[in-house]
Amino acid sequence: MKFAYRFSNLLGAVYRQGNLNFSQDGNAVISPVGNRVSVFDLKNNTSETLPVSTTKNITCVGLSPDRHLAIVVDEDGAALLVSLITRAVLHHFHFHKPVNSIRFSPDGRKFVVTKENVALMYHAPGKQREFNAFVLDKSYYGPYDETTCIDWTDDSKCFVVGSKDMSTWVFGAERWANLIYYSLGGHKDVIVGCFFEKDSLDLYTVSQDGTLCVWESDTELDGLVLMKSRDKPKPSRPAEEEEERLEGEEGEVIRGKAEAPKEKNTKNVRYKQRSKHFFNKEGDFNNLTAAAYHKPTHILVTGFASGIFHLHELPEFNLIHSLSISDQRISSVAINSSGDWIGFGCSGMGQLLVWEWQSESYVFKQQGHFNNMASLAYSPDGQYIATGGDDGKVKVWNSNSGLCFVTFTEHTSSITNVTFTSSGFVIVSASLDGTVRAFDLHRYRNFRTFTSPRPAQFSSLAVDKSGELVSAGAQDSFEIFLWSMQTGRLLEVLGGHEGPVSCLCFSPVQSILASASWDRTVRLWDMLDSWQVKETLSLTSDGLSVTYRPDGQELAVATLNGEICFWNPHTATQTGSVAGRHDLEMGRKETDKITAKQSAKGKSFTSLCYSADGESILAGGQSKFVCIYNIKEQMLMKKFEISCNLSFDAMEEFLDRRKMTEFGSLALVDEGAGDGEGVNISLPGVRKGDMSSRHFKPEIRVSSLRFSPTGRSWAATTTEGLLVYSLDGSMVFDPYDLDLDVTPASIRKQLRLQEWVSAIVLAFRLNEKALKQEVLETVPHEQIPVICGSLPDIYVEKLLGFVAASLEKSGHLQFYMTWAQSLLMLHGQNLKNRSGSILPTLQSLQKSIQRHFDNLSKLCDFNMYNIRYAVALSKQRGVKRAAEEDEGEEEEEEKDDDDGLSEEMSEASIEDAEMVL
């Protein structure tokens, strides 16, 4: 169970290339990220990466109408049929050529794939199990150049295909007598989008030069007549066409011609151009790059190379609004089912945006590091992950939702290291721009900037356990700088290394700083004794990385010869070593002139990280593998392959001989500013219109590794992004003390007999999460302290770990808090004796409690102000009511006085009358 980590999520990248899709309810965006697919839930503000991957970067994704199935196609045409419900791969298929677009019919029975200049219609996989999930139905030939886009009619009778040859072709999905194919012209540039009107054969076509053509059909959908079988012509297959067809594929071939079909008894469908509209031609508006149309609301969305998008109402072409959401090319546009939200993908900056056009506000706005990620750090409670990249940005990600919630852009050059202070509210980053900056997570500001007397490029960083001392190592002056976090003043410059300082690390229990350098030494600096060198550890090769064990009793150092050495920092003696050079298994780069086996001899680990319990160590470097070693046995326990994406360099062990010529490798040919693969680099200062841009193929490598403080997950910054491996995301059946009597039936029988302790012990022996939760939540609240006191010691830690995991997602806060409190109070001393092994569990519990505390504190603060307002309002009303009551009493007293006077007057008048009488 300890090494049963599974890929959990991909952070740091939200979009690379390809088309965006919305879920059926419109509350989630499905985005291709490299060779993986991420799903962003806009309603719950969470992200999830599907546990499937292709061999190269994904170019297009097709979703079935019910959004239960997805066909994912990569750059080479290799396709995966994926179930979005079970997250499993159902079928593998290869189209043998790059696929431009893929689209399911609205009834879900067929789908069309376009590659080169042909459209292939397949039968969609059904609910029953089939030997071949993709069966070719028909092949449609019409365009002379590559196809670009597809759209279906609402009744799945016809589909339209746009092409780079500026033509648009309408094809019948069945053999219609009056519509086999129809070719439309009228454009002077590449067709970007073609869309049918709702319940009609009317068409809209949009081209790259910013032209919209409205086509009107003289026939309704009901007017299509099915061709009789005797009239059905035999398909002709030219010899060259037969060679292009794939082996084992069967189906009709429909070949369109530039002229209209010959007249028959049935009147053929005809199109006429109803109108033609032009977008604003100023600036870069004429380079239209993406388009989407929402049929129920008649809204057309067009994206341009300048980052501007337009909303038009069709067919009148009324402009609703025009806004700029980015300064980069909009690569993909998608509209959700209700038509309220519009998704935009910008591949140049790795941006994913969801815009609500009616309120003109962002629903979702995320951007990953558009260049390499250099470093990461977990917060002390494991809730946040901070990353720094070569783009000079520091981003903070929520480990639960997988989304970035703040970005700091103060650095002007590549960031080499980031770290959290022990409080968890301050992030410190070092950069090649010669500054070390501290960021506040309360106010989201850069409140400290540390600089050196002479300009220096900082390559390493460390903060002590108190958060007061900040140290950074320079790679050019071989010095270590110390600053005070409180005052921001430079305290000391530590000299002594004879090479660049590659890594710094503070001891978690003492004020000792360890520094590794290329001069083949690790120096231990005493922060309490005038910053003197306490010990100097001699290495066999250049030191690349150094880290302390969580208890501070061991030191691990990675060296240039591929070894990991373990030292006792108190006695300065080496306790062991691991030779990891053969575990790297480096691939061969395209420009290498030596084999991968020879190349691997010069590779080494560049990042080390201890597990939370200190028994294992993670190591990664210039390779696609991350190795986990058992320190006590000094042996490799498991290797994690972080990527199988062949779009990266140094992935394959052997080179493709087809790329080798008598003049050398084709990879050495500079393709200029064309549509080459890889990452685009432009000249400094050029924002758009750069004709000197070049492309390079990024090399796969691991730049940083960190274990979560909870011990449940670990993360790695790689060329692909921030990969998170977790124990929670996998279904691992790991029972213990299991015999024939431990069954769900016997456990439920113990529950009916109210034998709570026995039921809990049996449930943990079977170790099924759902059953454990059922047993625990059946226990009466008042019985919890009694049961905790009766539990065997071996089950206390397991129960505490389960409570910590359940508390994070459960709504029964008081119930699980009572379990945690009772376990800690009754078994505190025994748990303290095993504090080293139980520390990850306690940190996981603290993370769950802290998360609920943060959420409830915001709610309570909000309610507190409401209550104060209500109390003040009630007091004001009470004062007003009291004043009204006082006024009422005065009026009654005055009335009583008036009544008394009138009575006296009446008595006097009676007496006077009697006297008169």
From TrEMBL:
* A Pfam cross-reference name: Utp12
User: Where do Basic and acidic residues bias regions lie?
Assistant: 228-239, 252-266
Read off the lineage from the record: Eukaryota, Metazoa, Chordata, Craniata, Vertebrata
Tell me the segments the record calls region Disordered: 228-266, 876-917
Give the compositionally biased regions (Acidic residues): 240-251, 884-917
Query: Which keywords does this Swiss-Prot/TrEMBL entry list?
Result: Nucleus, Repeat, WD repeat
The entry assigns this protein to a family as follows:
Belongs to the WD repeat PWP2 family.
Q: Does the keyword Nucleus apply?
A: yes
This protein is called PWP2 small subunit processome component
Q: Which Gene3D superfamilies does the record cross-reference, listed alphabetically?
A: YVTN repeat-like/Quinoprotein amine dehydrogenase
